[in-house]
Amino acid sequence: MITRAFPSTDTDALDILSNLMPILDFILAEALINRSSLIANDRWISPTQSSFSHAAILNAASSVIPELSMPANPIKPLLMLDRPFSTSIEPRQESAAYSFSAPDHLYIFTDGSKLDNRTGAGMVCLLNGTFFDHASTSLGLSPSVFQTELFAISMACTSITASPSARHTSIHSDSQAALIAIAATILKSSSVLSCISDLISASQHCLSLTLCWVPGHSNIEGNDLADSLAREGSGALPIGPEPFLPIGRAALSSALKSHFYSKHCSKWNSSKASTKCKTPLTALLTVQHKWLHPLPPTSILRPYSQLLSGHSYLNYFQHRTGIIPSPLCPACKEEPETSEHLLCRCPAFSSLRQRLFGTSTIPIALLISTFSPSTIISYITKTGRSLERPPPPP
Ligand SMILES: [Zn+2]
User: If you measure from the C-alpha of residue 95 to the centroid of ligand 1, how many angstroms do you get, rounded to a whole number?
Assistant: First the structure.
């Protein structure tokens, strides 16, 4: 068993100690992602007869996760050979040396941004050496950086379409991924398709339209301004209901993790586990938020799992299982020797806790959420209390 806990530890506790999404939820999450792909490819067949079919079960599960009903970014692959605009990705040195000074040529710089999960896009226009138009917008929480870059290019198209004079025009983005996706012959993203549609419309208002890559953070004034505007957008509070852009695979995966994490917490809170393991494991579930926290090192995994589950070689559990006559703590003989007693309040180790944790007594939830597994096991080692199987009585 990967947690190295006692075999008597209950399954709900093992789910938390193993730091994995519960297996049935994991299967359901994977099935929902596949359902979403099938829908995007027009290959999902809704159930017509049995409400117990796999499809019916997935439809019911998806009804409580709003992101699964939102417009999706992946689409059925679409072939597109020609475009009325060109795309250019020159080597970094040549792109960085470009002067942006051709007379009556409209240069538009675009950029996307993601800061602390908030996203934004910005663009600025340059004509005859003067920056004359700019825009910045917030795009909410769900888009990827790739989508924000595409949206910024669409903002440039809006500016071109609104311009009264047709000019040779170039849009400069620092996202090679966005430019490559726009130039691809097979399109798989509704954000890319929407951006291409905007570029086709904009091209009708230009003498020529070219998309160019510009290296980011290379002291190119237009790119720096677009970067600032995109950051301004991602720093602002989004106005309106999410999502602002179609939901991508990463955002969907994140929404499913959030949903199943909440479900895991609710299930654990209503489980019949004893408070002796519920309190530390609730703290652990919170620390491990969304199963991102790594397991403790192998060398301390067994004692750590046993301490947190309460199923250990400490006297309280050994007495409960009828192996030893007394549950009392051998150090103070005042209370049963539970994990919480030994870790948090045994008077025999007050000064040790003061030295290691900065306090003589500490609530177990605070201990688990504040100190690393290594520090906690180091405290146990310093108490001299062994968490190994005791030798059989003589
Ligand atoms: Zn004690």
Answer: 70
